[in-house]
Amino acid sequence: MSKLPNNSASIFSVMSQLANQHGAINLSQGFPNFPEDERLLQISERIIRENIHQYTPMAGLPSLLEKIALLTQKQYGRTVNTNTEMLITAGATQGIFTTINALIGAGDEVLILDPSYDSYEPSVLVGGGIPVRVALNEDYTPNFNRIEEAITHKTKMIVVNNPHNPTGKIWTSQDFEALETILEKHPQILVLGDEVYEYITFSQPHISFHTREKLNQRTIIASSFGKSLHVTGWKIGYLIAPEHLMQEIKKIHQFLVFSVNSFSQHTIAQYLEVVDFSEVSRMYQKKRDLFQSLLKDSRFELMPCDGTYFQVVNYKNISTANDVEFAKELILKHGVAAIPISVFYKEATDRQMLRFCFAKTDETLIAAAQKLCQV
Q1: Tens of pLDDT, residues 171-189
Q2: Which of 91, 110, 267, 278 has the fewest CB atoms within 10 Å of its CB?
Q3: What is the mean pLDDT of residues 329-356?
Q4: Pairing mode, strands 219-224 and 237-240
Q5: Cα(10)–Cα(20) distance, rounded to whole angstroms?
């Protein structure tokens, strides 16, 4: 019997395969196509000749854990214990899967805010839990009345993705206060904070769960070096959680991964000494601004993008087709691949929205925009 009977090939694979078949510019999958920082490459070239190719400790390379602790202190003012509250993971997705399967049991309910990243629900289902999808407002802000109404005695976790994929929305301090008010009434509920785009924000600062003292002892925060350092193929991220939760997460992690690849850990540990994450944010803001300026005369309506490297557009002035069909048409007739937003909803809610990834070279964005302006 299948544990995931309704899962098939992901929309990301489908759209990328179509793009490859038809020679389309691929703005669907969320990974950069520009070169890595030369400093990172130089460290990589030097370190690969060193004696760094055996297992690291299960929780992570100590020097990397120490650098992350310093970064967390600098960025958020939070002191974390490298021995008991941190874990290096094989990408944030593995960290999220491990967390859910360590802390959610059969029949436990997990609230997922739609539209949502496609790994959350399968992670819950594999663990025997029950995913409860709660729709965001039409402007993609959280609807706390719906969230509170969805809570039952079986609710054990809520997943919050901030900054938000696919919409680029960022939570405000008022949003966090509203969540804290609700969770004060329900001490059994844990929070899984997916903050993989924490260093890619624009119009307002990212507010991290690290800064929410009321929630620190019940929150697991997932971060991604793949996203922050644009090395998605390295598949390396990390979790920070209070000791009593991290103990359970490590029990699962040791049999799922044991330890993450040593090369990337050693390289990133040294790179964190020189990288400035504010530079990452500024670089992506320039790309967002360029892409938006290139599309301003198109028939697409651009939605606000406060963070992430995704731009959502509405195509209601162009077509009445559903978003999956229009996304396929965009590849076949116009040579640009995007992701339809309906696939991020449990009910496949279609508001005629597409998601473009602008983590691309300027040349790629210019070429794609030229095609999109002719749609």
Answers
A1: 999 999 999 999 999 999 9
A2: 278
A3: 95
A4: antiparallel
A5: 16
